[in-house]
Amino acid sequence: MVLIRSERADGREISCNQFLIAKDKDEIIGCARIKELDNCLELGSLVVRPQYRNMGIGGKLVREILIKDKRRPVYLLCLAQMASFYSRAGFNEIDIGLAPDTLKKEYSLVGSKISGKIIVMINP
Ligand SMILES: CC(C)(COP(=O)(O)OP(=O)(O)OC[C@H]1O[C@@H](n2cnc3c(N)ncnc32)[C@H](O)[C@@H]1OP(=O)(O)O)[C@@H](O)C(=O)NCCC(=O)NCCS
């Protein structure tokens, strides 16, 4: 939770079984989750502690949570500059018009809080 707050990641409706965490000894150094919205799945809350970044941990968390949770499709919202990071885990960008309604609402919410181009991606 501290990790999520530190990066202002999505900490709403937390339930432990949605998460995959990465640990170094007893310390949690990264997390990701797949959250169930009304009628779709969203990958989010992806955070790696700053001193552990660029070591492949974030990419591994994304790939592993998709192995653990086989339900599809999984959507995500991210900054456009993150597209290549997520495409390595099998996500493709889609037009917001093709996203489920609940995700469209998220998109408006996130877009109003964050500066920068937000895109929607899907792992089909
Ligand atoms: C995004 C994040 C989880 C990546 O974790 P990580 O352990 O560093 O990931 P990896 O080592 O597997 O991959 C690093 C790659 O992601 C890229 N990346 C990370 N943050 C980026 C950003 N904001 N914009 C563009 N690329 C970014 C790095 O440039 C690097 O690319 P490269 O492999 O081509 O050199 C981590 O930077 C983080 O916690 N950021 C803050 C929270 C956040 O932005 N979460 C994602 C919300 S969509």
Description of the molecule:
With 124 residues, this protein is an alpha+beta fold. The protein has a single domain, classed as 3-Layer(aba) Sandwich (Aminopeptidase). Helices cover 28% and strands 31% of the residues. Strands 1-2-3-4-6-5 form a six-stranded mixed β-sheet, with helices on both faces. β2 and β3 form a beta hairpin. The longest helix has 13 residues. The protein is globular and about 45 Å long. The model has no long low-confidence stretch (mean pLDDT 92). Bound molecules: coenzyme A (COA). Coenzyme A binds next to β3 and α2.
Topology:
Blueprint: H1 2-6, E1 19-24, E2 27-36, E3 41-48, H2 57-68, E4 74-79, H3 83-87, E5 92-94, H4 101-113, E6 118-123
Parallel strand pairs: 3-4
Antiparallel strand pairs: 1-2, 2-3, 4-6, 5-6
The chain binds coenzyme A (COA).
